[in-house]
Amino acid sequence: MMLPNADAPIKSRLAPTPSGYLHLGNLANFLLTWLTTRQAGGRLLLRIDDLDAARVRTAYLDDIFNTLEWLGIDYDEGPGSVADFIQNWRQELRLPMYNQWLDGLLATEKLYACICSRSQIKARYANGLYGGFCQPKHLPLTTPSAQWRLDVAHAPIFEIPMMRGQTQSLSLRQSIGDPVVRKKDGQPSYQLASLTDDLHYGINLVVRGADLMPSTACQLYIHRLVTGNDPAIRFIHHPLLTDSTGAKLSKSDGALSIKYLRQQGASATQVLAMAATFMGW
């Protein structure tokens, strides 16, 4: 795996979302991130992404701390408990920073208001990727319940790094469509918040699943538009763990959770070995 410049101390992060119980796919990513960071003598942040408040549950927050402790995956910075997270580390506390980046995007004049629902998008676009239906309408950004989308029609082709030095060419328009950067409720989207948080905490290595390659390209594009250059972050993407049908493991789909494996009597060593085996290590 290619790491950031040797002159810059490595700092990476674990970034779970408390929308379900952690599963083996999460663990594989955590393990790879933890091993890479520790072998490089770097620092590791625990950052919990909780902007999707409707899906957050205290039980899922508890599961993050309990699972990391049980598995022996330590970190150097971040909340030490649910109470600490709620008081000091929630993403809501960083809203002013997210809004600064939104202001930067507004200045590029590449944002537009969109009032399309998910069902309308599915009906209009066979591939499910939003192609700019509302853009010609020039709706005011203050339109009630409108989301803000980023026009990626003129975005470059991105070369996205994979493990072992490979890269994959990716078009934003063909992989993600015009992404939402501000949701209908006024909250920043994942794309904007994740980039802002990584910059705020000085992250320079992000280890992600291959499903997040479009997100990486989107965040690189946002940074280029606002600052004129690329962030000082190395993004590396690894293969996904899949179920028996070939679909990626997902908390929302009820994938096999680490909590369930514990309840069935599996040891931490056995669970770690399962994740490593699935990844082909």
Into which percentage range does the β-strand content fall? 5-15%
Task: Based on Cα principal axes, name the global outline.
Answer: globular
The protein's oligomeric status is single chain
Helix tally equals 10
Order of helices and strands: EHEHHHEHEEEHEHEHEHH
Instruction: Tell me, rounded to a whole number, the average pLDDT.
Output: 92
Helix content: 25-40%
The biggest beta sheet reads: 3 strands, antiparallel
Radius of gyration: 19 Å
Structure summary, number of beta strands: 9
Uncertain segments? none
**Cα separation of the termini:** 14 Å
Structural class by sheet pairing and helices: alpha/beta
Strand order of the largest sheet: 3-4-7
Structure notes:
There is one protein chain. By secondary structure, the chain is an alpha/beta fold. Helices cover 37% and strands 13% of the residues. It has 10 helices and 9 strands. The strands form 4 sheets. A 3-stranded antiparallel β-sheet has the order 3-4-7. A hairpin with a 5-residue loop joins strand 5 (158-161) and strand 6. Helix 7 packs across helix 8 (213-227).
Short description:
This protein is an alpha/beta fold and 281 residues long. The chain is 37% helix and 13% strand. The chain has helices spanning 24-39, 58-71, 82-88, 95-106, 118-124, 172-175, 190-200, 213-227, 258-263, 268-278, and strands spanning 11-14, 43-46, 111-114, 147-150, 158-161, 167-170, 180-182, 205-209, 234-238.
